[in-house]
From TrEMBL, chain A:
Pfam family, one: ABC_tran
Protein known as: ABC transporter domain-containing protein
Annotated ranges, domain ABC transporter: 20-253
Domain of life: Bacteria
Keyword Kinase belongs to the record: no
Keywords noted in UniProt: ATP-binding, Nucleotide-binding, Transport
Annotated CDD domains: ABC_NrtD_SsuB_transporters
InterPro entries linked: AAA+_ATPase, ABC_transporter-like_ATP-bd, ABC_transporter-like_CS, ABC_transporter_ATP-bind, P-loop_NTPase
Automatic annotation (TrEMBL), chain B:
Superkingdom, natural source: Bacteria
Membrane topology category: Multi-pass membrane protein
UniProt keyword rRNA processing present: no
Organism of derivation: Cellulomonas phragmiteti
Protein name (record): ABC transmembrane type-1 domain-containing protein
Family note: Belongs to the binding-protein-dependent transport system permease family.
Cellular compartments annotated: Cell membrane
Length: 291, 316
């Protein structure tokens, strides 16, 4: 294991510090003859513990931006810094947890072993790995499925396992690329409430890519609205909601507290603001969920 | 279902909720599959006898080309004659062992060589596959050679390997003729492993590869935690092909190099009795078939041991 590094203690990222700092970032795909500008001149700062959503029509570069932060892709111009260091250092130090639209669980590992994977790769001992996995599985309500394999689980359950896996190493930063995109509305709202609660508990910063306006508003402190071709930040909408109700654990699959929030006047106003930001700019939004 | 058995099955179902369906399926397969296999063997024998009964005595030719074989006792002995011949002594010499014992002994000799050849072939194929996965340049350079290697006729290769081997000096170890046969068997066995395993190592989805990257896993960690487990479903058929190839390679190389003691040499020797003792040449051929079945069976056992890597993810 050539890439194992010292895992930084949470004290290394005190609250109030900057989680992500993107300055003048651009990403151009393709050769010199036919370049495709996916991102252009993006500036964005995410504070520690802050929940920031990236929203915009298909092809606006929101996923590309997330991949730059995760160091799964490199910017062709500008800089991306994560917790004061380079994105690459943050990746090698396992500073962030990541979840994609697909669960991406390893089919030959049990649910528990899938959640333990990041810890196993970090060289955590067997006992503490097991303890942490049990804790996380209880958090996402899958304790009794610990010994099941992913193919025995529904899509929503698989996604919950993937979220538990992203949280396994107690990351100070969560990167999520439409993690609820493939789920039905009921499961999606349930998981949104769970995610809010988890973030309130762990104080992790989140960068969350979505194409659903209500989802972005419900979850975020700030919603970054992006426009396509070239991908740019059009506007940043601040959201101030009282989430104390929504962040409490739901009593089951129905999170009534979240429902209250979703009908709140401030929520409706923020949704309208994001919608206006998406519409303003001539071309209508494409691939955006306007519910 | 009677009322007496109902509570028992219910209790069983309750006591083992984890995998009752899977266990039941395995148990059913274990009971049914050997039966089906035996029936299939009888069906082949029946087909043989049916053609022998109904087919023309001198076969059927179109001009010079014979399209259907002769059905004479010399060309196609009765299956029961072959079976009976197995129980008789090998030759008329006093104290000669039974034919089936001789075939078994030759089969054991060939099996040892084939197993050695298979192991070498799997090792070489695996190393090639991992190297090709690691370095794209190696894949472009080596893969065509790997494919090309299989176009060299075995009969041409065998004497070469034997003469090279005899000139090798490996310290205290002197090159044995059986080693040449094992090398030739491995030459056939490595090919499916190299190709199948390369495909398997390249099979993980982008999402899984990126996940490993996101966790800061290096090449080796990714290989062990992701690529090797993901390669198993591709590897198992490759190992089975390699086992069959190793058996064929061993028998053919025994014929080509004239190595005594194995089935290949026995097939060669017994062919002389085709006229005087027609069932006799079929005995070592049956032995080779049995050896192939044994090899496939061993790989199937290996597959059962690795069954958890054969799960596939159900798309959400």
């Amino acid at each position: 294991m050539s890439t194992v590094q010292e895992h930084p203690t949470p004290a290394a990222h005190p609250r109030g510090a900057t989680a992500v700092e993107i300055v003048g970032a651009g990403r151009v795909f393709g050769g010199r003859s036919a370049p495709v500008v996916a991102l252009e001149d993006v500036d964005l700062t995410v504070a520690a513990g802050e929940f920031v959503s990236l929203i915009g029509p298909s092809g606006c570069g929101k996923s590309t931006l997330l991949r730059l932060v995760a160091d799964l892709d490199q910017p062709t111009s500008g800089t991306v810094r994560v917790f004061g260091g380079s994105a690459r250092d943050a990746r090698l130090a396992r500073d962030y947890g990541i979840a994609f639209q697909q669960a991406g669980l390893l089919p030959w590992r049990t649910v528990r072993a899938n959640v333990e994977l990041p810890l196993a790769l970090a060289g955590t001992g067997r006992a503490s790995r097991r303890e942490r996995a049990d804790e996380l599985l209880a958090m996402v309500g899958l304790t009794e499925f610990a010994e099941h394999h992913p193919d025995q689980l529904s899509g929503g359950m698989q996604q919950r396992v993937a979220i538990a896996r992203a949280l396994a190493d107690s990351p100070s930063l969560l990167l999520m690329d439409e993690p609820f995109g493939a789920l039905d509305e009921m499961t999606r709202e349930h998981l949104q409430a769970q995610l809010l609660r988890i973030c309130a508990e762990t104080r992790a910063a989140v960068v969350f890519v979505t194409h659903s306006i209500p989802e972005a508003v419900f979850l975020s402190d700030r919603v970054v609205v992006m426009s396509p071709r070239p991908g740019r930040i059009r506007q940043v909408v601040d959201v101030t909601l009282d989430r104390s109700g929504a962040a409490t654990p739901g009593s089951g699959p129905h999170d009534d507290a979240g429902d209250d929030l979703r009908t709140d006047a401030a929520f409706v106003a923020a949704v309208a603001a994001v919608r206006t930001a998406l519409h303003g700019g001539g071309t209508g939004p494409r691939g955006v969920d306007l519910r | 279902m009677s009322t007496a058995t109902a509570p028992t099955t219910l209790a069983e179902a309750v006591s083992s909720p984890a995998a009752p369906a899977a266990a039941g399926r395995v148990a059913r397969l274990l009971r049914v599959r050997p039966l089906v296999a035996v029936l299939a063997a009888f069906a082949v024998a029946a087909l043989w006898e049916a053609y022998k009964l109904l087919g023309p005595e001198q076969g059927w030719s179109l001009g010079e080309t014979r399209l259907l074989p002769r059905t004479t006792a010399m060309a196609m002995p009765h299956t029961w004659d072959v079976a009976a011949r197995l129980l008789e002594p090998v030759s008329g010499a006093t104290g000669a062992e039974a034919l089936w014992v001789a075939v078994l002994r030759a089969g054991a000799s060939s099996a040892g060589i084939a197993l050695t050849g298979w192991a070498i072939g799997v090792a070489v194929g695996a190393v090639l596959a991992v190297t090709m996965q690691r370095l794209r340049v190696v894949e472009s350079a080596v893969l065509p050679l790997v494919v090309l290697s299989q176009t060299v006729p075995l009969i041409a290769l065998a004497p070469l390997v034997r003469s090279w081997g005899s000139r090798l000096e490996l310290g205290a170890v002197t090159w044995q003729p059986w080693m040449s046969v094992a090398v030739i068997a491995s030459y056939l066995a490595f090919f499916p492993v190299a190709v199948g395993m390369l495909r398997g190592l390249q099979s993980p989805d982008t999402i899984h590869v990126e996940l490993m990257r996101a966790y800061g896993a290096g090449w080796w960690t990714t290989l062990v935690a992701l690529r090797l487990p993901a390669a198993v479903p591709h590897l198992l058929p490759a190992l089975r092909l390699a086992a069959a190839n190793a058996v064929v390679g061993t028998v053919v190389a025994e014929v080509a190099t004239g190595l005594p003691g194995g089935l290949g040499r026995m097939i060669l020797e017994f062919a002389n009795f085709a006229a005087s003792d027609p069932p006799k040449p079929w005995a070592p051929i049956l032995g080779a078939v049995a050896l192939g079945l044994l090899a496939a069976g061993l790989v199937a056992l290996l597959g059962r041991a690795l069954h958890r890597y054969r799960r596939t993810e159900v798309a959400s």
